[in-house]
UniProtKB/TrEMBL annotation:
Family matches, as InterPro entries: Ran_GTPase-activating, RCC1-like_dom, RCC1/BLIP-II, Reg_chr_condens, Secre_tail
Domain Secretion system C-terminal sorting: 390-461
Keyword Signal: yes
Keyword terms: Guanine-nucleotide releasing factor, Repeat, Signal
Superkingdom: Bacteria
Protein name according to UniProt: T9SS type A sorting domain-containing protein
Length: 463
């Protein structure tokens, strides 16, 4: 019977005496696990995994990052309490982990340890995840939601949980989304903010403590450029670099120097030049224009990163050694920072290995997360997959590519460096082709064998 080959891109990871860093592009922290988007469009995860939320096909906790299985082309991700969501470059969304309330959106209530596609979604450009619900922003400015809904956080006018996405009612022109424990926030293209869901601490910012199942506007907010939802508080970044906050304040997470809850947004004093905000369960992080970070709120595990475990009700500087920060993310009791060089740093609770340093030791000053987005390389004499043999590996002067079944159309072999630059292209018009590579410096390269209906990518070592 003739073998049918479907169109796909296959990446084979080889292993050797070292590692190849491909750099982290994005980070996301949840209850007890962390996710990392790697530059090649793959994802890695670390930490708590009892519901399969790391996506590696197991339910075993990990203290160093593992590859999320079976998914590539990722351009965005978000992390909940016990589940993770991934946005692909084709506008589809995939999810993994706890699914008892339908938060994975695949129409079931069954946990998954490898990602499954969220049903019925296309054209998605952003994702956000709360404790037990997920939000999806479409390219038409509408928002869709799935998962638990007892407080109306899905915004569909009901209190009924959903296992497939439903549209958030009454919203158009949305450009930003955020999800907390049980509430959701939406930023419109006119700089206004809308909220829905639980409001017992005033986290919706509408001047009441009444929960909503239809989104309401936060009346006092204008010129907002970013929103973030903590556990039961909310933060709003203005276009002038200041931040406003609202909601629960029992650990000082609103940053106004008090422990008093607020149901209308207040300006966080003495906080300027802010370019990004992240909301944790009971704390907040702020990225400054000088690429340093500040933090406020609960600090019982050292998640504020100032070397103490003392709560703060006004923002303090995270350890002075942490500079050149590109982005940040706040989890339940831990914080994660991405630097401009692609390295990841983490601080706070580590009982599940969520800091990714190979230990379960809590940290009050940031440590470098190990092996994030590093590809392990293996020396193999021959690489054979899908009727293609690439040999030898490592190679010196000649690379041989053998096709055991000539494709219907000519097959092309392309060699790229790790920066994605095309170095050589050869048409494979016979079943066995020798390619001269003696001009290439010693190092690691990608060989892409491309036919009319398949692209196969392999890593090779030249020495």
């Amino acid at each position: 019977m003739k073998k049918t080959v479907t169109k796909s891109i296959l990446f084979t990871i080889l292993t050797c005496f070292g590692t190849l860093s491909t750099n982290a592009q994005s980070i996301s922290a949840g209850f007890g696990h962390s996710n990392f988007l790697c530059s090649g469009g793959t994802a890695q995860a670390v930490g708590f995994n009892t519901s399969g939320q790391l996506g590696d096909g197991t339910i075993i906790n990990k203290s160093t990052s593992v590859q999320v299985a079976g998914i590539e082309g990722i351009i965005g991700l978000a992390t909940g309490s016990l589940h993770s969501v991934f946005l692909k470059n084709d506008g589809t969304v995939w999810a993994v982990g706890k699914n008892d309330l339908g938060q994975l959106g695949d129409g079931t209530l069954i946990n998954k340890s490898t990602p499954v596609q969220v049903a019925g979604l296309t054209g998605i450009i952003k994702v956000a995840v709360g404790s037990w619900h997920s939000l999806f922003l479409k390219n038409d400015g509408t928002v869709w939601a799935v998962g638990t809904n007892p407080n109306g956080q899905l915004g569909d006018g009901t209190l009924v949980s959903k296992s497939t996405p439903v549209q958030v009612l009454g919203l158009t022109g949305i450009i930003g989304i955020a999800a907390g424990y049980d509430h959701s926030l939406f930023l419109k293209n006119d700089g206004t903010v809308w909220g829905v869901g639980r409001n017992n601490f005033g986290q919706l910012g509408d001047g009441t403590t009444i929960s909503k199942s239809i989104a309401v506007q936060i009346p006092s907010l204008t010129n907002i450029i970013a929103v973030t939802a903590g556990g039961e508080h909310s933060n709003f970044l203005k276009n002038n670099g200041t931040v406003q906050a609202v909601g629960r304040n029992n650990y000082g997470q609103l940053g106004d120097g008090t422990l008093v809850n607020k149901n209308t947004p207040i300006l966080i004093p003495n906080l300027t030049g802010i370019t990004a905000v992240a909301g944790g369960s009971e704390f907040s992080l702020f990225l400054k224009s000088d690429a340093t970070a500040m933090a406020v709120g609960r600090n019982n595990y050292g998640q504020l990163g100032d070397g103490t475990i003392i709560d703060k009700n006004t923002p303090i500087q995270i350890a002075s050694g942490l500079t050149d920060i590109n982005s940040l993310s706040a989890g339940y009791n831990h914080s994660v920072f991405l630097k401009n060089d692609g390295t990841v740093w983490a601080v706070g609770r580590n009982s599940f290995g969520q800091l990714g340093d190979g230990t379960s030791v809590d940290r009050s000053t940031p440590i470098n997360t190990t092996i994030v987005c590093n590809v392990l390389l293996e020396l193999a004499e021959n690489i054979r997959e899908d009727n293609i043999i690439i040999s030898p590996n490592p190679c010196k002067e000649i690379l041989t590519i053998e096709l055991t079944e000539l494709q219907k159309y000519n097959t092309v072999a392309e060699i790229f460096n790790l920066q994605g630059q095309l170095l050589q292209s050869t048409t494979l018009s016979t079943l066995k082709t020798n390619i001269l590579i003696d001009y290439l410096p010693n190092g690691i390269y990608l060989v892409q064998v491309k036919s009319a209906n398949k692209i196969l990518v392999k890593k090779i070592i030249k020495n």
